[in-house]
Structures are given as structure tokens and as C-alpha cells.
## 1
Amino acid sequence: MPERMLMSAEDMQRALLRIAHEIVERNKGAGDLVLVGMQTRGVPIARRLAATIKQLEAVNVPVGSLDISLYRDDLASLSLKPKVHRTDIPVDITDKQIVLVDDVFYTGRSIRAAMDALIDLGRPKSIQLAVLVDRGHRELPIRADYVGKNIPTSRNEEIKVEIKEVDSEDQVVIVSTDKGANHEND
Amino acid sequence: MRTIESSADTVTPDSLPPPSAAVWQHSHVLDLDDFSREEIELVLEIADSMKEVLGREVKRVPTLRGKTVVTLFYEASTRTRASFELAAKNLSADTVSIDASKSSVTKGESLADSLRTIQALGADIIVMRHSQSGAPYLAVHEVNSSIINAGDGWHAHPSQALLDIYTIRSHLGKTQNLKVAIVGDIMHSRVARSNIWGLTSMGAKVVLCGPSTLLPRDMDSFLKICELNGVSIENKIESAVENADVVMLLRLQMERQQSGLLPSLREYIQQYQLTAQRLSLARPKALVMHPGPINEGIEVSPEIAHGAQSVIEEQVANGVAIRMALLYLVAGGKNK
């Protein structure tokens, strides 16, 4: 399968730096912020954003992790169940400005599930969405507030985000699959 | 999110959580004898995530919305049944509970007919308890619903063993090389049998202890299984408990035994009750466990049953998380 690099480690770093600035600007500081990374690669991305925000604002922004397996809308049709990772949000999210963080934004279905999961945990003041890559093909009326890079794709392609903490390397690559398999990973 | 096309040969993109498919092989949960260590680990891990749900103010996730879970109990039960029902409700499944003593069974309906009726009513998962060993194995052939064995005769009680292993691991951090003494009425105990399979798969050293009359009568084959799995047998509780990391007590199942197995209850208490003195032979922070219901003052003294080392109530709480994990894993899987 042919692979092509879309973002290098430096590109990713710059995109995250910009997103961190945008988050602080939009929320007029970082006081009520909570970053919630979606399992699995959203979590290290959220941690990096929090570290950058700390440098900018000298505020420790709480970082949580969210697993959406129990909220998926396709569980009934899946014969193979996804592993359920831990949901761990260290603070009460009620009245907080939540920034959901994910690696790839695709159909929007997992963001829908994540919003349901968050609202089961409390009543945040707002939920915003930050993604490293937006690859299009939305199936729900959901948009991102902060985007690292817009990458037009075909459904036959697969976006692979690699994060040092999980994959030992930072990069975003695009892989064409000839099968046209429906690999959604938004 | 992704939709799985049809088969396991679909390439899994790296950025997705690994599907449990490669590990989980069951559409039914009948006993732990066909569970790999990896499968048990998967159940424990998912139970951990379920425990987080149980810690919330609103203990409910939409995972099994639209699924129907039927509990079919031919034997009395408080905690197992309530635990399965709560687990199903926490996952938003619809639940129906059938108490066989109050159902058409009393009008002469056979087990197979009852099962088919329940399937026709739309049960996706049937959680069943039966006094006959092997009944759930029959059920698997009668219906397409997933079957979870909630205890069959003297044979197996897999969800209990899994919650025991989960409880041990959450306290001691591991199961490998732990000495687990199971004391009491081994012969009539499905809990002991499932725990032997589960604990030995997880690397624990199991010691069974009880009067010879309460060890399985079919000794030859039983001893062979024990030997294969490194299970030892002690007649004296002191040797079984010595240096144990876990002491698991079993209830004397009076309802299953005819007289003659014990000289007297008093003698059993004298020789086998877990007392503070006997527990002091175990490791300092050894856990005291019991699948319940407890006959206080018979297999365990009251101060130990409610003492600092007892995790008996925690076992009950963990049961809900384990059963949520099992329901999650068997639900919907129509691949077999």
C-alpha cells in the first residue's frame, strides 16, 4: 500500500502550538478549561496542548481521557467488540469549558458519541472540538473549532496519525487502500 | 468510528483501539475451562472501565439499548440475579426476569420449551441458573440467543470466578504465583470448580481443603485434573491457610447433601471454621473471600467475616462490573 507523508513532526508541533494559542484566545485565558482527549491518540495530543497552554498562560489545565466504546451507534451491528479503555476525567466538568481532542475528524460519529458520554458526566458550559486532521466526509452536522490541517481525502484512503507516546514517532501519513474498506477513524 | 465489514481480514488502521476480536472467542459464557488467560485479562480490563461507570452519579450508559436480557433462574439466588439485572440495566438493556418456580415450568414445561419461548419473545441474551449440571450446554443447542451460565448444579459459575479473580487482582495487584486456599464444601461447589480453571489459568496456586467426604467423589478424574493444573489438596485447614495470599470460604450446601457426609456440624466447625487464630497463619494481608450466602459461625467466624481482611462485600460490588463486561462482550456477536 502506497504511503505518503502529510505532516512531519515539525508540522505537527507547529499545528498544535497554533491550536493552543487559538484555544486560549477563544476562551479568553485558560481558567475554566478542561482538555479531554479521546482514547487513544487524542489523549497524548491533549496532554501536549495542555503543556503548551501552561507555557503560554502559566495555568495547569486539567487533562482527562474519554473512551466512547460504550456510546457507539454501531455496537448492535458489530460482531467484534472494541476494547473498552478507561474514561478518567480528574475534575467535575460541570460549568467548565471542555475542549474535546481527537486525532482524525471523519464522519463525526465518534464526536457525537463523545458528547453523549461527556453530558452523562455533568453539564459543561461549552464543548469545543480540536482535531489534528480533518479529512472530511461528515455524516452528522458537527464541525471542529480548531483544526491542525484540513486534508481532502477519498473514502478509500486511510489517514494514519502516529504519536510518539503511542507509536514511537510523530507523523501523519495517508495510505490508499485498494479495497475501499470503510475505515472510519474520526 | 468504523464499521467492520465482515471478516477478520479487514486491515485495522493503527489509530483505532485494537478490537477485542483477536482475543475474545465466545458467543456464550458457560465455564472458564475454555477461557484463555488473554480472554480473562480482557474481561478484567473491561470490568475496570465498567467500574468507572458504576462510580458515576448516573450509572447508565446506552451500550445495550434495544437489547433484551432475560434472567431465567431455576434455583434461588439473591446476589447473582440482582447483579446480572443491574448490570443489564446499567447498560440500558431491557430486562425480563423469570422465576421458574412461578412460571409455566410448574405446569410441566420442559427446559427446552421454556428456552424457545423466551427466544421467541426476543431475548438476545439469556442468563440462566439451573440445578442440573450442564443445563446451559443444552440451552446453547436449543436457541440462538447468547447464553450466560449463572450457575449450573455442581458444575460451573464462571461470572463468580471472574469477579473473584478481579477482586484478588485489584487488592494484590496480580494473580501470578499467589497461594489461594479454597476451604469447605468443595464437592458441591460450582464456585470452586470455575475458580480452579480461572485461577490456574491466571498463574495462581490453588489449594483445596475440606473433609474427605466433601471433596469430589469421582476422585480419580478429579485428582487428575488437579494434578494437571498444579492444584493441591489438604485435609487440614492449618496447612491450607499457611502462607496463603487468599482464603476463599465456601458455604456448606445443606440443600444439596444428604446426611452422612459430616459426622456433625459441631465437628466441622471445630476443624474447618476460619477463625482469627487460623487466619494468622496466612500472609499478613491475606484476603478473606466468600461467594455468599454466608453461614456465619459455621465456615467462618463472624469477626473474620466482617473483619479488616474481609473483601466479601466488595466481591458483590465487583460482580456488577464483571457482569457488565460479560454482557457487553457477548451482546450482538452473531458471528458464530
Note: DSSP finds twelve helices and nine strands in chain B.
## 2
Amino acid sequence: MYMIELSLNILEIHREEDFVISVTAEKDNLHSNNSGTLADDKTKVSIEGNFAIGLSKPILDLSPYEIWIVFPKSKKITRFFRSDANSNTILLTEQCDQRCIMCSQPPKNYDYTHFELYKEAIALIEGPSVIGISGGEPTLFKTELLEFISDIVKIKPDIKFHVLTNGQHFSDEDINTLKALRKSIIWAVPIYSRDASEHDKIVGKKGAFDELLKGLNVLAKSSSILELRTVVLRENIFGISLLANFIGINLPWVQSWSIMQLEKKGYAVFEWEKKFYDTSSDFKILSKAIEISQARGFAVDLYNFPLCTVPSQFRKYCRKSISDWKSKYIKACMPCADKKLCSGLFEWYDEASGFKNIKALK
Amino acid sequence: MNLFPFISRKIGQSVLSTNEAGRFILSDDTLPQIAKKADETTNLYQTGMAYDEESDIYFNSYIFDIARRNFIPKTIDYFMIIPTLRCNLNCTYCQVSRANEDALGFDWDDQQYETFIKFFDRHSGDTPKVEIQGGEPLLVYAKLEKLILTLRKLRPSCEIVICTNLQDISDHVIKSIKKLSIFISSSLDGPLKTHDRNRTQNIASAKKFYNNLNSCINELGHEKISLLPTIVDPRIMMEVYLEYKNLGFNEIFMRPVNYQGFARKKHSSSKSIGDEWSDSYLQFLEWLFNENETSDHKISETFFSLHAKRIFKAGYNSHVDFRNPNPVAKDYVVVNFDGKLFPSDEARMLDRIGIIDLSIGDLDYGFDDKKIGQIDDLSKLENYSQCQSCAYKPFCGIDVVDLISKHGTVDVNMHETDNCKMHMRIFDFIFENIKKNNPIFMKNLNLNLTGTYAEPHLTFGNVYD
């Protein structure tokens, strides 16, 4: 069991400018002018038979088709697109205007707004695909981001975007642009409580809930596709039924509601016991919220919930949500018959402080 | 803060206030009294009773839910067809008007099958349901088999239901039904004796039905079979329940007998079913809910669940007898044995017994838009003055054909109609029990909304804890 590394180090390179290449292990990679072939030793990439890049260590998990963005100056490569990955995501910025108590990726002062390189890279994708955009808070670069997506949609209409945002930076001026893009973007927006002060406390920002409702209203007015996301915490789980009622009545246009288990990373690690709610020992509170979604008629997905931690009648809502590059199974999972359908656990999952009841099914 | 327009109704000592989007609040105070309390403001926003300014999120969700409650699909997703009127049974209340098994001129000919296929292809949405009625459709099963294969070629996800009396079904036909993933719908009026009295009038035939039913259950599974009783005597509802439970079903539909077809002649008492039927039905519901509390085998009741879903699920308007508006030939059409099109099965019966011609076209010439327009205008509760002050209007439905059938006119005092009486009683029953917060009722409400027998955490306006 090992993690797929999405960032590679360069040992040797003869170019200076940043560039995009497609990479396969096949000798006749003819996808574009910038198409590379990984040599048999798995450390060298050649373009049209000539040496182009030397990697610091062999890459053993190359997808059938990958698109890389190469940064010679910093000697880094980003594996932008892997054809057999269950998600391909652009991390646009590490800046954020919230300080969520369970943030898995605490904010830093770095941006990765290489929109021109992303455009070149997406142009190399064949067929329909979904590109995730996350942060930080990507809409801190809202204007550039919407422009970028508009450009892509013009040249590649079968590329869709899944943007993770706190939803607080939209205004009525964005409605026309959002309307034009509404079929190409799913907006995934977190909401933690129907109680403004509880929500604000969790995201570490005063007034966030009121701003969020304004932003969600802009998304509604532009008929945008909305996915709501709620990470389950000790802080909010006792109000999750009220939140479900709130969604059913006040956000009836929601396409789906993702209920997510906590990832032990970043800020979540601090005072973990005060944040993590073990739904494998007690699922009842969540089952009530799911029943409300059934009664009100909106869709629910369970993210990061291993199948064995969920009562059988609710397993149909579990999604294989953990990206392949950061998922794992533990010893207790080995005999399980349903591993292929299961989200598994995060690579950094810690058995001692995690779910009490992980067991093989069947 | 502004309140959305609302209508109130007394529920015991409490007040129920509803608005057009179907949001409601159930409280000891009236809505304006609640609105005066500063600490209730957030609650009123969040329960969908109030907004701050036009175009804020509370206002937009209100508008959205009104639109959902009024939404009707633009393509036909439900075809009911009657390829034969011939039947091998002679039920006392036959609603469909039947012809004898050996009668001539009551079947679609090959040309009509072809014309229907073209009609279907032109009007059907992507996921249509075709309900094959009769007569007894199994009398022409060989032709149906061919038809179904063609329909599935045109719309691969087309769902097929055959409504049969299960009097005569061979192993070969059951196997074919299984292979084609066809649903079976049949009638069972209760224990053998009752079923026999109503339908077969011959114990040997009734036994034959039971054998066939069991073969279908074994071969196809409960999930492929829906069974409907037609309750003539409300007192036997409990017997019917036990019979369905013994057969392993999880759902029962206590629909009242319809006032159409030959039922009109033979069951004249069905004219004033409103109150009499509601008394028995609600008594039965309370009894059923207590049974569910003690039994491991929980059974939901479709008529109740329909009312509950109309309250809680904006956009639940797929039941064509109970929705508003209820437009004609937008998403649902009946094609008769002679190719005539009708807005509903009931309309077909009224035509057959010569009360009123409600046909809206035929297979050869298509829809009669002028007639459709006339019926559509009558198919909105907005057009009936008594409904305008009713707190249950956002949840209720309209059935024009039923009105005409029972009263010969649509110019009626709605409150005096059987349908209105029944629906009012059931809605009152639901809100009274919600107000009492009766745990057994609540668990049964949840069962009928979600399939889970446990107390729900739905909020009811005043119950934010």
C-alpha cells in the first residue's frame, strides 16, 4: 500500500520555460506535438526520441494517459490529469478567508493561478471529463476563474467543472456569467448548521452564514447546479436534522447534499477527540437526517463513510469518495467482499482514534 | 419581516397556517401573533413562512416550491392502454365496462397496434410507463409480447405493467413476464370468501386465482406485484389487511370503490361514501398503526401515504387522481380498445355508459386541442371558489372527471363533494396527530414517507428544539 504522488521532482531538464506535455509508456504517443514517452527505466521522458526530462525517482504508477505541467525553474512536475484517476483536481490557491476548525489543508500564502498552462493542459484531454477546482478558496480569484472556465467551455464543451467554494464571494453582477456556465459547473458549497452562530464558529468567520445565504441565492438566481456539503463534527451533529429540514425548505433547488466524515489532517488533528464523531458506533442521528431528505425528496450522498460503518439500508448512499491517491484499506478490510465498492480510509487514517467498528462485510 | 400570504384552520385548540408553497406552521398562536415575537423571526424565515425582501433566499425558495407544486412534465410518461375489452370474469362493480370473453369487435386489430406504436413514439418521454388494462389483457398476451418488444426498442427503459385478474395464467406466460421484467397488478378483495363474492362468484375460480397469485409471487417476487383491494364493505378492511400480510406484502391501498361503470348501477350506496367511508377508513388507519407498532411486519397504506407526501414533498404530483393542477393529456393518456383517447380511466367509463363524451381525440387523428383546453380550465383548484379559503389547498388535488361522474356538473359546492370530505378528514387526521405528537402515529408517518419505522425528526414549524 503506497500513496500515488501527484508532484514529481526533476533531476535534469533542458528547457527553461514552463510547459505542458502528455505522457504515456507507449513508443508512439502521437497525441500532440508535446507528447512524451516514459522510458523503460521509468525515470526518463523523451519527446520525439530525444531526451527531455530526467526524474529524481522512477514513476511506477503511470496511468495509460497522463498530462503533466512542467516547471523547470522549481524542478517540479504536476501530474495534472491521469486518465484512470477517480478525480483530477486543480489546487488553485492555498489562501482562504475562513479558518474552518477541521480544515484538512490549512491556508498558506501560495497561489497556483497558472490559467494559461491549465488551458493548454485541458486542451489535451480526450473526451468528456470532470476537472475539480479547490483551494484554499478558489473564488478569491473569481473573475479570473470564471473567465478561465468560459474559455474552456468554448473550446471543450464536454469538460465539466466541480468547484469547491465557500460561496461567499458571488454578487448579482455575476448572474449572467454564471447563467451562461450553469451547465458546465457543479458548485460544491459547505454548510455546517442552520444556526448562524454555530456555522460561523465552525468556519471561524463572523457573519459567514449570512454571506453564505446571499451567495447561495446568487447561485439560485442563475440556476446554477448546487451541491451542499456538511462535514460531520461533534460540534454540529446534534443539529444535523435541523439542517436537513432547513435545506428541504429553504434550499429546495439543491441537487444533492453530501454528508462527509472527518479527515484526520490539518487542523482536524488538533483536539481530534472533540471533533470526530464515531458514526460507526452511533449512526442514529445521521439516519434521522437522511430520512428527512427522503421525506422532503432531495438526494443525499455519504462521503468518506466506509460501508461497514453504515447500517445496510443506508449503504446505497455511500460513495467511493476518497481519491485513489490518498485512500487505503486496513488489515480488518482484507477479507471484505465489498472493498471495491467502498470508499476505504484516508491514507493518514489512524486506527487508534478512528472508527470503533471496522469489519469485513459478508 | 414580511409574512407570505397564508390561510389558517383550527386544529383542536391550535392553529394551522399554510401558504401556497405548502409550508406550514402549527402552533397555539396565530401566525400574526407569532410574528410579533422578536425571538421567532429566524424561525419564521426558516420554516418558510416569512421573508425579508423580495428576491431574498427565503422569497426565492417560496417561489421555487410553488413552481414545483405546479409542475407537470411536458412529455407523456404514462400511457394506459386497453387492447381488449373482453374479460373472463364478471365482477359486481366492474368499473371498466367489460365484454364477454367470446364477443367480437372489442380488440385492437393489427393496424391499431401499429398506430399506437407510432403515437407512442411521437409523444413519449424517455422513461415512460405503459399500463396495460382490459378487459383481461392476458387474453391477448401473444400480441402484447410483440408490442412490448417494440416499445422497448423505441424507449429502452420503458416500464410495463399488466393489470390482470390472474384467473387464467400459464407457466409459459409467467416465464415470459419474468423474462421481460413486466410488473403485474391485480385485485384481491380480501379473504377467499370476500374475493369470491365480489369477483369470481364461484369458489373453484377463486381458488384458481389464489393458486395463480402464489405462482406469480414465487416466480416474480413481491416487488414485481402490486395488489389492490376494492373495498365495498369498509368493515372488512382489517380482514383485507391480514390477508395481504399473510401473502407477504408490505403495502396496501384502501381505495374507495369508484362511482363508475357498472358500479353505478349495482352499488348505489357508493353515492355518499364521503363520511361513511372516512369513518371506517380512519378507524382502520388507527388500528393499522397500532398493528405496525407491535408487529415486525410493517405495512404502509397508499392512500394515507399519498396525502402525507402531498404535504411534505413539494413536486410530488405523479398521482393523476390527486394533484393540482391536473391538466389533460400533458403527461398521461388513456387509449381505449376502439382507439379513442381519454384524459383518465374514469373518463373512459363515463363515455362507455353514455353519461358524457370526455374523449380528447383518437389514435388516427391525434389530440382534440379545443376539448383539451376546455377540460384543462376546469382542472385547477384556483377555479373553485370554496377552495380559495382552504388551508389544505396547497396539498390537495382535483379530479374533474370524478366531479362530473358524481354530480353531472362541475358547478358544485366543493365542500359537499365526497372527495373534498374524504381529503379534509385525512388532512385533519394527519395534523391533529402531528399536534398531539403521538409517537405511534409519528412512526407510521415516517414509514409512509421514507420506509423506515421510527420517529421522524421532521420539523413542524413550532417544534424547533
Note: Chain A has two domains: 1-82, 83-353.
## 3
Amino acid sequence: MTADRPGRVRRFGRVLLRPRLRRVDVAVAVLLGLLGFAAAVQVRSTQGSGLLASARQEDLVRILDDLTSRSTRLRQEVATLTTTQERLTSGSGQEQAAVAEARRRAQVLGVLAGTVPARGPGVLVTVSDPEHKVSADVLLDALEEMRDAGAEAVQLEGSIDPASNTAGPGQAVRVVASTSFVDDSSAGGIRVDGTLLLPPYRFVVVGDPATISAALAIPGGVTDNVGQRGGRTVVVRRDSVLVGALRALDRPRYARPAGQPSG
Amino acid sequence: MIPAIALALGVALGLFLEPTVPSALQPYLPIAVVAALDAVFGAVRAQLDGIFDDRVFVVSFVSNVLVAGLVVFLGDQLGVGGQLSTGVVVVLGIRIFSNAAAIRRHVFRA
């Protein structure tokens, strides 16, 4: 056997080269052609459409099962995260609303307590007192009258210079609920919360200009009262006045907040 | 020579025509190709051994493909198609390797 092996290899080559056409040869050729064709098609379909196209049905079912359970898990996770997000956003929304509300209330209370400047439509009420007869109770009456007419922020100025229409230095006091008016006849003026103001005086009032000026002008009211004492009241309506004097806030010595009112 | 030309022609046809495999045939085509490859390697070995017979080759080729397809089909019906086709590929692969070893011994004498 081993001796004539080269001969066999040669004969194999001759078999391949020899042109002879029998039915069996045709069958062999057809089969090999089919093999090449099928192999090429298979390679193509494997490369072309990836794994899924050539996967078996049961494999596909398993893959589908995996994907379904995974998507279920992910959907649950999405639901959880959405809930968390909603809780966080609504929480921060409430917090923001609370902060905004607190800030708004602080502003309102600041205007009332005189700790923040106030600006708005209002009047300038100048009270001249050439005979030094306008006493503290006259100014207090005027203030009460203006408060009744809806004055929201008031400051009282003294030593008004008729030429420049401005108050003298240190002659402006914010008027709040606890403000006191005391006559100081020796100095020829009035102490408002301890600050000596000299005539002529001027109220700077934020409030409805028409109502306040009407309230000051009623017969027997402030204007008449000041007139009887030799003074003159001049009311000027303005679209915008600035109550710029501030008042330091005293910390209550005894009173403490007692929580929410119960009713 | 003619078989080699036919093989090349088949490959070229398959590459250029790009036919889509019918989905019913998809699980069987790769197995059929491997089975046919086994028959072809066996034929080459037989040729080198001097015992090649055209008719035997044709019959073994066709029966190889049919049996492989049948086994896989049976496996599919029994629910073990995947494993059985793997088994068929392994067995045919071993046969191809042993045939290739015999061919190598003939050609390179080693």
C-alpha cells in the first residue's frame, strides 16, 4: 500500500482532470454545487440577520421570556422612581410655597412694624406752626384721622425747609402702632418716639390719596384744627411716595410667641 | 475538476443571488451543510485510499443530509432540537477531523 501512494495521488489528480461525463458525475457535480450554494446562503443569512433569525423556536421563546421578565422588572423600577420623583417635586414645591408665603408675610409685617421701607400712592401733609401752638395731640389727631382713612405706612418729618421741601437732618421718624407723641415746649417742638421734631412738620403717608385728603379736609377736622392754632395744612397727592425711615425692632422682654392661635 | 468547478459555481450563485432561507428550513440548513461536508471529506479520503466510488458518494451524501435533517427534526418534535443538533454537529465534526487527518497523512505523508 505505502509503495504506490504517490501513484494514487497522481491518479486522484487525473480523476479530477479527466473529462468524462457519466450520470453519476453529473449527480456528484450537482450535489457539490448544492453544497456550495447552501453553505454560501447559510453564511450569508448568519452574517446578515444576526443570531435571532437563525435561532430555534425554543431559544426564541426563552429569549422572549427573559426580555419580558426583564422589562417587567424595569417597569417596576420606573414606577418606583416615578413615585419618588413625584414625592420629591411635590415636597420641594410645598417648601417653596411655604418659603414664599413666609417671605410675603415678613414683608407685610415689616411694613406694619416699620422695619422695611414702603412705597406707594399717597399724600404729603405739611403742617406749619408759626405760633408754636400745634401740640402733640393735634398731630396725634391727624395721624388717627389718616389711619382711619386707610393710611398704611406713615413717617413724620420735622424742620421742613419751604425752599427745598426737604426735612432737616435726623428729622424723620417712622410712625408705627407704638409711636408716642410728647410735647417739648422748652425746645419748641414735639418728641416723637424720643426724637425731637421741630415745625413745620410733614406727614409722608402711603394710602389712598383721595380718601386721606378728604378725611383731613372734613369740617372741624385736622385742617380746621390746625387753622385755629394759626397753622396751615397743605395736602399734596402723589402717585408714589417713599416712606424710607426705618425703625429698629425691639425684642419683647416678656412676651413670647404662644404657638398657633386656637381659633 | 468538474466537481470543483460545480462547488465554486454553487458558492458564487449563493453569494450573488442572496436568496432568503425559508423559515421552515432554517434550523436544518446548517446541519445539512455540515453533513454534506462530512460526505465530501469522506469522498476525498476514499479517493486517496483508492476506494472511491461515485455511487457510494452520491448515496452517502444524500443519506447523510437526510439523516442529519431527520435527527434534528425529531429532536425538534421531542423538544431537544437544540441539544440534538449540537450533538450532530459534534459527531460530524469529529468525523470531518478524522477524515482530514487521513487526507493529511496521504498528501503530506505525516
Note: Chain B has a mean pLDDT of 88.
## 4
Amino acid sequence: MNPTNIVIFSIGIVFSLGLCLSGMTQPEKVTAFLDFTGNWDPSLLMVMLGAVTTYFTLSRFTLKRKAPMLAQKFALPTRVDIDGRLVAGAAMFGFGWGMVGFCPGPALASLVTLNSSVWIFVISMTAGMYIYGTLDTRFKGEPDGGAGALERSAEALRHPATATS
Amino acid sequence: MENFTPLASLAGGVLIGLAAVAMLLFAGRIGGISGIYGGLLTADRGDTAWRAWFIGGLMAGATLMAFLHPESLDIVINKTPLAVIVAGLLVGIGARLGSGCTSGHGVCGVGRLAPRSLVATTVFMMTGALAAYIVNHIFGGAV
């Protein structure tokens, strides 16, 4: 057993504890946040605040290292261009998220409840990923950012005309 | 707003942020769940084990929470199977086409001020609000 995988397993546990504690595994809580014209539940704002502030603060220190602790180098996305795929994909993703209230992490974690709707959702989501993968293998999904993204992002904002990669 | 849980949600958010930072610190990767999971379908053989371990960790954590805090996994989905299938397909295709989901773009990307993630997060919040409005107010919650 590879020790790196044990660390990654533990990270998955912490991630999941956060998802469950925050309310992200309760779809009706998620849709109650997204539907601010109804009985609005602002809890998800607190989730975003806690997660983004933590990541914003600590990732800066982490990226000062030459390399990660258990890997050769940081493997981070580098693109900064805004293209149609990004916008269309995010639009589709958001619509599906708002319809039922599940995004991938909470749905995968919730499989252990054996709730049939959760399984139907995850199987459909997996099928969707597979369909996309077979239709287009040129672009592999890389959640955004980039090694040294802060510098490059600032550069791109200053000189938008030269930012297309 | 009677269901507002500010402290639990803030604490949960901090744990999510810490886990995502740990992914960066130890593995040097973005803690984006759709990317990690989706990679199981497309990645090379040597690149799949850690992904499976991470997803296993998500499930182990949820199992723990089912005992510690059962209401967090008291899942109510009052939607038809067809609506759940459509939503799942949209989430799966959209997350891959848009290179990320709520964790990869919404937490890690926004947390690093990556322009693509700021745009994606704004867009999926808007279409999510639109979908929730349509489902709740036009279809009366019954889809």
C-alpha cells in the first residue's frame, strides 16, 4: 500500500466531513440557497466564505514551496483564457446543480446512504462525464487555476489582448 | 431563513478548505472533485489509484458522519427519476466541459483568484439560481 494514497484517503475523509457538516449533502438546503426568491437559506455563503478564505490564505504559503511533500512537482492548470467551453460547461453544470441540489462531491459521499435518487444521480453524472470524454478527448478536465496563476492572472487582467493562449 | 446554520456551515467550509489545501501541500494538485473523479474514466493506468482512494475517503467520511451527525445525511430528494437523470447528465457533462465544479472552481480556483474560475463560479451560481427558481416557482417543486 502506497503511503501517498493513505494521505489522500485521509484528505478525502476531511473533505467529506466538511461537506456533511456544512450542509452540502442536503440537497434541499442547497436549492434553498440558490432560490433566493423563496425561503432563502444563506448557509452556503458561509461554506464558501470558510472554504475560500482558508484556501486563499494557506495556498499562498503552500505554493512558496519548491515542491509538494509527496510529489515531484505541483501539477496545476495554467490556462487563463475565457472560452465558450468554460462558460457553456459552467452554465450546464449550474443548471443541473440547481435542479436537484447535488454537485459531484456531496453526491459521491452520499452514495453510502444507499438513497436510490443519489445512485441515479451519480450514475447519470458518470455517464455524462463518459459521454463528454468520448465526444472530446482533446481537452482533459482541469479545474482551473495555474502554477503561478496569481502572477499570470494579474498579467492577463492588465493586458487582456495578449492573454489568449 | 429559519434553516440558516451559520456556524456549522462555516466550520464545514473551513474543513473543505483545509482538505483542498492539504491536496495541494501533499500531492501538488487541485482538490477538484469532478476532475479527480472524472479522471478515473480517462486517466492512464498509473494515475487512477490515488483518485479511487480519494473517492473512498469521501465515502468513509460520510459513513462516519452518518453516525456522528445523522441529520447531515438525511437526504430528501422529492424529484422524479427523470429530473434526477437530466440533472446528473448536466452536472457530469458541464463539469468536464467547463473544467471544474464547485470544489475545483468554486473553492480552489476562486481561492487563488484564477480568472477562469471566477467566471465559471459566477456563471454556475447564476444558472443554479435560475434552475432553482424554475423548479420551485414555475413547476411548484414538482419536476
Note: The helical segments of chain B are 6-27, 33-42, 49-68, 81-97, 104-111, 115-138.
